[in-house]
User: Which sequence fits this backbone?
DNA sequence: CTCAGTATACCAAGTAGTAGGCAAATACCG
DNA sequence: CGGTATTTGCCTACTACTTGGTATACTGAG
């Protein structure tokens, strides 16, 4: 496989398990099996790497959401699949989904990267809003009133749930926090 | 004032605005106006500092919750005051509440510190559970069914909302994500 | 013969933490 | 009380190490 994508895959793994500040080019180098300096050939700076990671993830994730929309006609099915997506990304509490891992990064990412991240959040919130809006018509989710507000709330909840689960290294924390959302499916 | 508590105050500020990994003893030293090595006299290692921070915060925060319980007899009032507590801690999107800032820390904190953090989360979840349980009787919150699950969900939501607001450097994101919780007060 | 990909060898800056000294406050004791 | 020991709080100066990044040379395939 392409070294460049191998690097991206390994880097994604590292970001999600240890955070963007939690790994160095040195770590990445040993994991991939080339020398540290060689990474710079593919991703000139760590900032460049961050941008490549977020951009790819955004694309892949939005594709997944599109698949869900295609396969699940009902609002309830879409919401449950969405929750599964976030749950699976956790790999049992030792990992975060990439967008959470980056949202949580403390060091200043370059402008491009934060823009991608914001765009990603906006896209997901938008998608969720359409789900709740659909629920107003198909009635497969309990107690929906304001789709836009509910979308933001749901996104915050899954992200917060991931963080709490990772902090406790206990994946069931995620489930506990998500239960009320799941229970809304009819 | 005591240098030791001045250090703790400044450190809390730094953790909340830049993360525990985002500041060094050197930063803290210049902010307080003593030399880096002198900090080690008060807090032997950065791990010790983390423990002191979390322990103090846990105490103060639980006191606040107790005050709320004392002043607000109704579940709705308690929930709204709780949300205000988290909103105020954000200082307009540039800061996190300390427990979120630590939950989000990627480097391995010492065992004592993570234990305090988990205890803190458990305490807050417990407090929220009693609020929702109260709501079952006084009826001042809409749509309460399972207090325990709702407590975990609410906690995840406020934590996630803080993170999204900070990532976007936009405090209104917090409000947007919290709106559905706020709207449940009768 | 070029050039992408890798390597060796380095750098400047920053990290947590240590060693040891020095002055002022405090405690102990005759 | 007076004087001696001890502690407190801070300092300068350092170590040992990691970080992201650079300069430059080698290698092999097209």
Assistant:
């Amino acid at each position: 496989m392409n070294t460049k994508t191998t690097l991206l895959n390994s880097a994604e793994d590292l970001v999600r398990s240890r955070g963007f500040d939690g790994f160095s080019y040195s770590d990445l180098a040993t994991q991939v099996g080339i020398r540290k300096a060689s990474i710079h050939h593919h991703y000139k700076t760590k900032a460049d790497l961050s941008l490549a990671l977020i951009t790819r993830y955004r694309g892949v994730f939005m594709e997944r959401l599109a698949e869900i929309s295609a396969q699940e006609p009902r609002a309830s099915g879409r919401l449950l699949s969405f929750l599964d997506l976030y749950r699976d990304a956790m790999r049992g509490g030792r990992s975060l989904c990439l967008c959470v891992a980056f949202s949580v990064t403390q060091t200043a990412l370059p402008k491009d990267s934060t823009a991608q991240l914001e765009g990603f959040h906006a896209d997901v919130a938008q998608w969720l809003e359409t789900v709740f809006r659909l629920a107003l018509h198909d009635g497969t989710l309990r107690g929906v009133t304001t789709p836009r507000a509910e979308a933001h709330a749901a996104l915050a909840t899954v992200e917060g749930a991931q963080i709490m689960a990772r902090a406790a290294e206990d994946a069931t924390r995620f489930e506990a926090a998500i239960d009320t959302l799941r229970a809304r499916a009819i």
Notes: Chain A has nine helices and no strands.
